[in-house]
Amino acid sequence: MFKTAITEMYGIEYPIIQGGLMWLAKAELAVATAEAGGIGFMTALTHDKPEGLRDEIRKVKDQTDKPFGINLTFLPSLRPPDFPAYVGVCIDEGVKFIETAGRSPEEFMPTLNDAGIKVIHKCTSIRHALKAQKIGCAAVSIDGFECAGHPGEDDITSLILIPLAKDALDIPVVASGGFGDGRGLVAALALGADGMNMGTRFVATKECPIHENVKQAIVNASERDTRLLMRSLRNTARFLVNDNAEKVLEIEARGETTIDDIKEFMSGVKGKDMRDNGDMDSGVFSAGQVVGLIRSVPSVQELFDEIVGEARELLTQRLPNIVQDEVTA
Ligand SMILES: Cc1cc2nc3c(=O)[nH]c(=O)nc-3n(C[C@H](O)[C@H](O)[C@H](O)COP(=O)(O)O)c2cc1C
C-alpha cells in the first residue's frame, strides 16, 4: 500500500489512475483497475445515450465495491451531447468521482459539489490548473506534451509541468502523459505529484475491449511512432502513425485546412473498424509517446504488480542507496 493525497482522496491502495479512454474505458477496465488497487474513469460519451452510462455504472457496482469514476470530456462539437443528463445519471447512481477534460467544468461545479462529487480536472497548462482550483475542483491531472489525445498547444512536457503545478497549487496534482511503469510512478512522485494517470498503457492490457492488433501495434511502436494531427485547427491531438495520420498531415501542410478536409481519415466509424476488426489502416488511433516503453500486454493486475514492484524497489533500495552522507560520530 502507498499513501499520498490521491490514495487518501479516492480511498485506493496505489496512486495509479486509468484516465478516460473514448470507446474503451468501460466496466471491464474500471473493475479490473479497482480490484488491482487503483481507480478507473469510464468515459461517459462512449454511450450515445445517458441511459447507456447508467447501465455501465450498474455493471461496475455489481462486480466491485471499490472506487471508480466517470470521465466527462467537454470538446467542441456541432451537436453537443446532453451533459446535464449525463451528470444527472452520475448523481442518481451515487458516483463519487468525476474526471473532467477539455473545456472548464465550471458550469457544473455547483451541482457536482452539492452532490458531494469530487472533481479532478485534466488540463495541459498551469493557467487552466489554477482556474480548476479556483472553481472548486478537488485535484488536477496535468497532461504533458507526451500524452495521447489532446496535449494542448503549448508543447510543454510533463517534466516541466508537474513541478510547476505542484508549486502553483494547493490541491493534489496527478501526473499524466508519458507514464507507463514503476520508474514513471517514482518520477511523478519525485516531481511533486500525488499520483500517476495513464491512458495508452491501459489500452495494451488484457481487459481493454479492443482488437488484439491494436494492442500489438502499441507493443511494436517506438517512441517516434506518434503524430500530432489537427495542429492547424488549434485542436492538436496525438495519434499512432499510420497511412491516414500521414495523409492528414499532408493535407494540413497545404494550408487553410478545415475539418471537412480531414474528417474522412479521422472518422469514428472507420476507427470502429480498427477497434473491433483490427484493421490498422482504418481511421486513426490516439496514443502517446509512451508506446516506446510498452512491450507487453499484461492483465491489469499484472500491470499493477509490475509497476508497484518496480516503484517499491526504487523507493526502498536504489534511491536510498544513492545518498552517501558521512555519519558523524
Ligand atoms: C485511446 C485513447 C482514448 C482517449 N480518450 C479520452 C477521452 O475520451 N477523454 C479524456 O479526457 N482523455 C482521453 N484520453 C487521454 C487519457 O485519459 C490520458 O489523459 C492520456 O492517455 C495520458 O497520456 P498517456 O497516453 O501518455 O498515458 C484517451 C487516451 C487514449 C490512449
Mean pLDDT: 96
Tell me the structural class.
alpha/beta
In CATH, the topology of the largest domain is named TIM Barrel
Radius of gyration: 19 Å
Describe the biggest sheet? Answer: 8 strands, parallel, barrel
Task: Describe the overall structure.
The protein has 329 residues and is an alpha/beta fold. The protein has 2 domains: 5-204 and 304-322, TIM Barrel, CATH 3.20.20; 212-277, no CATH class. Helices cover 43% and strands 14% of the residues. It has helices at residues 5-10, 27-36, 50-63, 83-92, 109-114, 126-134, 158-168, 182-190, 200-203, 212-220, 243-253, 259-266, 268-277, 300-322; strands spanning 16-18, 39-43, 69-74, 97-102, 118-123, 139-143, 173-176, 195-198, 226-229, 237-240. The strands form 2 sheets. It has an 8-stranded parallel beta barrel with strand order 1-2-3-4-5-6-7-8, surrounded by 5 helices. Strands 9-10 form a two-stranded antiparallel sheet. The longest helix has 23 residues, at 300-322. It is globular, with a radius of gyration of 19 Å. The model has no long low-confidence stretch (mean pLDDT 96). Bound molecules: flavin mononucleotide.
Can you lay out the helices and strands and say which pair or pack?
Elements: H1 5-10, E1 16-18, H2 27-36, E2 39-43, H3 50-63, E3 69-74, H4 83-92, E4 97-102, H5 109-114, E5 118-123, H6 126-134, E6 139-143, H7 158-168, E7 173-176, H8 182-190, E8 195-198, H9 200-203, H10 212-220, E9 226-229, E10 237-240, H11 243-253, H12 259-266, H13 268-277, H14 300-322
Parallel strand pairs: 1-2, 1-8, 2-3, 3-4, 4-5, 5-6, 6-7, 7-8
Antiparallel strand pairs: 9-10
Helix pairs in contact: 2-3, 2-14, 3-4, 8-14, 11-12
This protein binds flavin mononucleotide.
Flavin mononucleotide binds next to strand 3, strand 8 and helix 9.
